[in-house]
Amino acid sequence: MMLFVAALLPVVIYIFAVYKIDHFSLISIKNLFLQVLCGIVAALVCFALFQLTGLMLSENQSDVFHPVLEEMIKAIPLLWLATRKKIVFFIDSVICGAAVGGGFSILENIFYLLLGREMGIGTVLFRGLEVALIHMGCTAIMAAGLMLGIRLMARSRSGLGIKRSDALMVVFLLVIPSVLHVCHNTFHFNPLMQFIFVIATMGGLLFWTYYYDVEMIHSWLDTGLDNQLNLLDSIKKGHLDDTPTGYFLESVKDAFPPEDYFDIICYVELHVELSVASRSRVLLRESGLERELPLTDEMKELILSQYTEYKLLEKRLGNAARMTIAPVVKYDPAEHKALEDLRSECLKKSLPNVCPAVDGQV
After folding, report:
1. Which residue in 231, 310, 224 sits closest to 267, CA to CA?
2. Distance in angstroms (rounded) separating the CA atoms of residues 108 and 193
3. Less CB within 10 Å around the terminal CB: N or C of the chain?
4. CB 67 within 8 A of CB 184
5. CB 332 within 8 A of CB 155
6. pLDDT by residue (tens digit) across 10-30?
7. How far apart are the first and last CA of the chain?
8. CA distance 84 to 230
9. Which residues, in sequence order, are CB contacts of 98 under 8 Å at separation 6+?
10. Residue 221 phi/psi, 5° resolution?
11. In angstroms, rounded to a whole number, what is the distance separating the alpha carbons of residues 159 and 24?
């Protein structure tokens, strides 16, 4: 019994530590456990596949093939989350990736105890630490790569440019987990040195990816927010040609009937207003002021009515109109997530006497 506790304890500690990093509470406990369960299922699938390939591959071939297959299987639930825009920031992608990797290592450690050679409690604990770290680290990096890849695809569909460095970063993040896992299984040296090497490599890659993502998000929050505020001001004043985006909207005016063009302007205005509100809430959450500056009931009703009208206009506009304004209404995954979080916040009932709201603050 103690051996099983020693095998599972490192995984639980790692998952808890990664989860506590998320002070924005982007991932619920329920979703965290679902990702752990996905990791356990992935381990069962890999175990079944290894039984089929065991007779066909040599030991050296297995050391290369098995890690790659494991990373591909673990990536499946993360790909589903990324395509459904459930993970759009670095921190939630790392938490989900680490949870899937942690679930995988839980079952793998149990398999080693049941089917492997007899080990002492110290060996089990040390091995549990290293195996959990390699699985959780590799899967977290893979999740970050998938998140960035989906983000770039969304930018491409919106008619926005993609930097070559961003594309190369995605390829690197998707490939490096398998490379690291293969190296870990193939090259063996002093266990303590190997453990330190794994920690240093995983930590360095995750910190690098984090700061890369921070730069992308800050450009989205700062530069994008400034541009949208200028556009919103020009729409309200009726001087669209004051901004490059407004000039673009003016240039397509003759391509649509007046009533359709009016719907387009209303749609863009609602999109900008909701986008500014959602980005403002993200900034407040980032600075830790969300609880001190809650939305009032009037603000919530206004935002929900705007959201409803926005969705109705979206259905009313034809495909041609939506494709035309795609460069203006950018369907960025991070923006989509921020808008859905804002809607969820507005749907929650306000708690009495929690904090005084600041009038006009969104």
Report:
1. 310
2. 22
3. N
4. yes
5. yes
6. 667 766 776 666 544 556 778
7. 53
8. 31
9. 14, 15, 18, 136, 137, 139, 140
10. -75, -45
11. 31
pTM for the model stands at: 0.63
Which backbone phi and psi does 248 adopt, to 5 degrees?
-65, -45
Q: Answer whether residue 222 shows pLDDT above 50.
A: no
Does residue 291 sit in helix, strand or coil? coil
Calculate the CA 154 to chain-centre distance: 13
Token digits of residue 208: 């690098």
* Residue 198: partners with Cβ closer than 8 Å, 6 or more residues away: 130, 133, 134, 137, 184
Q: Are 265 and 328 in contact (CB under 8 A)?
A: no
DSSP-derived 3-state class of residue 359: coil
26 in Cβ contact with 91 (< 8 Å): yes
- Name 171's Cβ contacts closer than 8 Å, sequence gap at least 6: none
Residue 161 burial (10 A CB sphere; 0-12, 13-18, 19+):
exposed
Residues 36 and 100 sit within 8 Å (Cβ to Cβ): yes
Place of tokens 């919530």: 300
Residue 142 in contact with residue 78, Cβ under 8 Å? yes
Of 208, 216, 211, 89, nearest to 163 by C-alpha is: 216
**What tokens does 67 get?**
């890690």
Number of H helices, E strands in the chain: 12, 0
Could you give the CA distance from residue 181 to residue 64 in angstroms, rounded to a whole number?
9
Q: How far apart are the C-alpha atoms of 101 and 118, rounded to whole Å?
A: 24
